[in-house]
Amino acid sequence: MKRVQACILLVILGFSGLIPHVAAAETYPVTPRATETVSDEQQSGRRVVIVSAKGNVDNAVEQVKDAVPSAKIRHVFKVVYGGFSLDLLEEDIDVLKKLDGIARVDDIAIYQPSLESSIPFVGAGKSDKRHLGPGGEALTGKGVKVGVIDTGVDYEHPDLRANVKGGYDVIDEDEDPMETKADQGEPTFHGTHVAGVIAANGRIKGVAPEAEIYAYRALGPGGQGTTEQVLEAIEKAVADGVDVLNLSLGNTVNGPDWPTSLALDRAVDKGVVAVTSSGNSGPNMWTVGSPGTSAKAISVGASLPPVEIPYMTLTNEKERRLELTPLVGAKPWKLKRDIPVVEAGHGLVSDYKDVDAKGKLVLVKRGRSTFAEKMETARKAGATGILIYNNLKGSFAGGVMQSVDLIGASLSKEDGEWLLEQLDHSKKELSVRTGYEQKQDLLASFSSRGPVTETWEVKPDLVAPGVAIQSTVPKGYLGLNGTSMASPHVAGAAALLIQQHPDWNPEQVKAALMNTTKCLVDEQGREYMPHEQGAGRLQVDKALETKTLVYPSSLTFGTWEKKAPRTKRELTVTIENMESKARVYHIVPPLGELDGIEWETPFSVTVGPNEKKQVTLAADIDPALLQEGLHAGTVEITGGSDTIRLPYVLFMEEPNYPRVMAFQFVHGDAKNSYYYEYYLPGGAEESGIALFDPDTFEFVDVLVSHEHSERGMVSGELSDLNVAPGRYRALVFAKSEGVKDTIEAFIDVGEPPLFPKEG
């Protein structure tokens, strides 16, 4: 069987880094291995791509058949995408792109999912006379169809059995969207967990416990799927008439026009409320990935419900606290005694030489092997637990699909390197002590931040609980972390709103959810920025009680050059009054907060009963008076008992977004062939991939070099590389607008591309 070459891993499960985002592999610097299989008849040098048609899809298909004899049409997407997927020879890609009927060509991507106290915490699960449907019935999501595009759903689970009404298995092309079982490959559970947050109705209760679940299995064994499969699932769901669609999956492409993002935009145009996780690649800006970049979908970040967070201190240095994020699949972190800690490199088998790990915690660095391999190697070495510290700035959430008999947690890069330094400088063995701290309503450090490149839109749209979320999994229940867990809270809330207001369109549902959020502040009391929390944290009860809608519910004034003349930019919002009497609304812009911006808005607006009115918000901007960088704030609209905050962003000069992202390097179909890709969100004057020795950092070779690339994915196939087989440190670089950025990753050259294993 051959392997499809395009491979953008989506890590969004509840636990970032595994988490399907359940994935067992990390985004960087591990070399991903493509797993999708294609027919045995396919020959070396072929590729599967997603094609967008300029006009009529059928005409474009016929044009391709005539002009590209090697092309084999796989699936046609007319409902939400306006295009098709096809398999063709690599050498025919340029011919395909030049056809008049073709708008764009994208490689497929491999998606992995991103993985009950949280439900009452956000104001759901209450019996309240203020929360009734149009017939006076309690709001439970009854009669609302919610599609879950994921790894499938265990419809035999007692808490879900009554609610799963249908769906489709895109992977096996049948009507049975069950989770992958052990005899089919690496088993999955992510979709069942997501479905439980939405609509479990048994031992635990979801946000909308009587909603109808339609399961679409687009992610197969191990939680992997492709752009093509996700698009097909969206098409199926929309055709089946779902009211709400949840996608707890994503990739690292921060761009508004990736196929899955565009498909969700079109699903919304057809009346579907689309909800998606923002990603688990935080805490830096620009880390939200597609489809969380969809303009019309609801992108959801992760916050903390009331939760007990473990932390560590050295027994001889108690001033510095090292915050822990427990690893999914490991034993619960409930240490009550001091325990020695030792360091073991990247956690490879070879790193344990001369390391006595028995009965101790092992500190290892993220990268060069999967979480599962690190944990299993530590277990075999006799360790009591494992600490994996990040290889990128900040924290991460992670885990494995199969349980491992040891405790485990992740650390931020900063905390891990500090602990490593203490170990290196100590002349005696060091021990750590665990403490616990109650926290809530903080952003999860792993939650991806926006905004979106090119459009500069605010994302995520809002946040919801995504840490230690208990929900259903095959044969039981499990607590998971991730924006994958936050997204279904919002999908369930959308189901309640649709039951309450069956005539609402997706924009109204989105507005109700965003207009009624709670603004969050960090531990220093600083209000989180719009690109971090969107409008704020979900409050279901407030959304069900609102009498006013304002949309769009976030604003962007785009980018400005310092040398630009003073200019007025106008944005229009709609205020909708749902009461039976007229209401007077006051517009309160952030006057005086920024030199260089003068706001021009009406002082008040009267909106009649059950009417809506458009209002112009104008900002008179003098770029010469504004400092470079991001400027953000809120515009308040008050009326009656409602106060609605509209977050806005504005950039002075070209934003400092990453010039390169989403790098992947995999073995191709032919012997000694390789496929690479990376995304350029703003294009680049020059870009490429350079190889270095992983230990000495000595330069080896330039693998790829490109000049004057447009915005989008850069990809290609390589063969017979002029370097010796082995593992290399790859430096992916791009220069755009005078700014140069790099990504570091480890890649394998030569067969077989295996991580070190015990014999």
How would the blueprint of this fold be written?
Layout: E1 2-3, E2 12-13, E3 37-38, E4 46-53, H1 57-67, E5 72-77, E6 83-89, H2 93-97, E7 102-107, E8 110-114, H3 118-121, E9 145-150, E10 164-169, H4 190-199, E11 212-217, E12 225-226, H5 227-239, E13 244-247, E14 249-250, H6 259-269, E15 273-277, E16 298-303, E17 307-314, E18 317-323, E19 325-326, E20 339-343, E21 361-365, H7 371-380, E22 385-389, E23 407-411, H8 413-425, E24 430-439, E25 462-465, E26 469-473, E27 476-480, H9 483-500, H10 506-515, H11 530-533, H12 540-545, E28 548-551, E29 555-560, E30 567-577, E31 583-588, E32 597-600, E33 604-607, E34 612-621, E35 629-639, E36 642-652, E37 661-667, E38 673-680, E39 684-692, E40 699-709, E41 712-719, E42 726-736, E43 739-749
Helix pairs in contact: 4-9, 5-6, 9-10
SSE-based structural type = alpha/beta
| Strand line-up of the largest beta sheet | 18-17-24-20-21-22-23-19
Molecular shape: globular
Head-to-tail CA distance between termini? 26 Å
Strand content: 35-45%
Under CATH, the topology of the largest domain is which?
Rossmann fold
Q: Number of folding domains?
A: 4
Number of helices: 12
What is the CATH homology-level superfamily of the largest domain? Peptidase S8/S53 domain
Number of strands: 43
CATH architecture of the largest domain: 3-Layer(aba) Sandwich
Report the top-level CATH class of the largest domain. Alpha Beta
